Amino acid sequence: MPERKKTGFFQNNSQLLIPLVAIGLLLIFNLIRDSSFFSVNIGTNNDGYPVLQGNLISILNGASELAILAMGMTLVTAASGGQDISVGCLAAIAGSVFVKVLRAGPITGWTVALGVVLCCLVAMVFGCFNGTLVSVFKIQPMIATLILFTCGRSIAYWINGGATPTVGSPIITAIGSFIPGIPVPTPILIVILVGIILSIVFRTTTLRLYIQSVGINQGAAKLNGINPLKIKLLAFILLGACCSVSGVIGVSRLSLINHETLLLNIEMDAILAVAIGGNSLGGGKFNMAGSILGAYTIQALTITLYAMKVPSTDVKAYKAIVIILLVILGSPVVKDAFRRLRMRSNSGRTSIGKEAA
User: Fold this and answer.
1) In sequence order, which residues have a C-beta less than 8 Å from that of residue 252 and are 6 or more positions away?
2) Could you give the angle at the alpha carbon of 121 between the alpha carbons of 155 and 159, nearest 5°?
3) How far, in whole angstroms, is CA 301 from its chain's centroid?
4) How far apart are CA 125 and CA 128, in angstroms?
5) How far, rounded to the nearest angstrom, does the alpha carbon of residue 210 sit from its chain's CA centroid?
6) DSSP secondary structure string, 257-293?
7) Which of 90, 214, 235, 291 would be a feasible disulfide site paired with 277, CB 3.0-4.6 Å?
8) pLDDT grade, residue 321 (50/70/90)?
């Protein structure tokens, strides 16, 4: 019997080549430049608890919001063949709702839980709005989400009456930094939790298959009993949930909401993370692990540039150069060229083996 293909969270491991190579090159470069770059130390925070410190922890921690958004963006890209450019604005809306709930009374565990649930529901409603424009009205995803990209931060501004209130609380601090007694930053744990949830969903349902089927050939998927409208809507709704989680983390890091700066310009990084992860921006098959690695690659590059004392005004230019190279290496043209080269090499070895025999 033919071997059954694996269909889990880390499916299509060959797609991980580009992000793994990119992270490997950054690792080698930093080891040569400064062997202590990736060292991890145990220090203490302001409350006296032991915590992990170092550039590696900064990379994993700093990319948390981007990694979560990249997971949701992967689903939307795979299902619709387009990208949602409103994720940063939607995270700002979710963050504003979260703060609005917290300001209604004393901040307790139940209040925080209620705030998370409500901001998630609001973000999913806005995600459904974007998905309706794409699936029902057949508007190209980038154009459809341009509406929320344009007005989203204004909506976030209105939710709290134009203020930028603080929500200081030990619980909020724990969400944005460290849980007392746990040395790993909480945002890293949240990324792991979101990844596990999606992995369980993919393993126990046919969601992965349906999303990929709709992305590859919507007409054929419909003939096989799959409703493309519902699948696209679900992808955008799940992205909305991811935006709410990222918004909560962003708010908790600073213990305040600033609608103008919260996850500003993270949309492009989320799209790039999906592309660097080896996923086709035209839809179809996807690899969630690749998108997560793509997010960490972008953050590792950023931390590396800052460690090299590159001015903040120049960081984006250097990032653009490296990302262009990574995207080109992962493009179908380059992949086909490498595939042809490998086939020629294999055929040459086969002919030599026959002659030797």
Assistant:
1) 172, 173, 175, 176, 177
2) 25
3) 16
4) 5
5) 21
6) --TTTTTTTHHHHHHHHHHHTT--TTSS---HHHHHH
7) 291
8) confident
Place of tokens 């580009």: 18
Give the fold, CATH level 3, of 13-35+42-309.
Answer: ABC transporter involved in vitamin B12 uptake, BtuC (1.10.3470)
pLDDT > 80? residue 305 = yes
Element (H, E) at 53: strand 50-53
pTM over the 0.70 mark: yes
Domain locations along the chain: 13-35+42-309
d(C-alpha 288, C-alpha 219), whole Å: 24
Q: How many CA atoms lie within 13 A of 135 on its CB side?
A: 24
Residue 226 exposure: Cα atoms within 13 Å on the Cβ side: 23
Q: Is 173 left (phi over 0), alpha (psi -120 to 50) or beta?
A: alpha
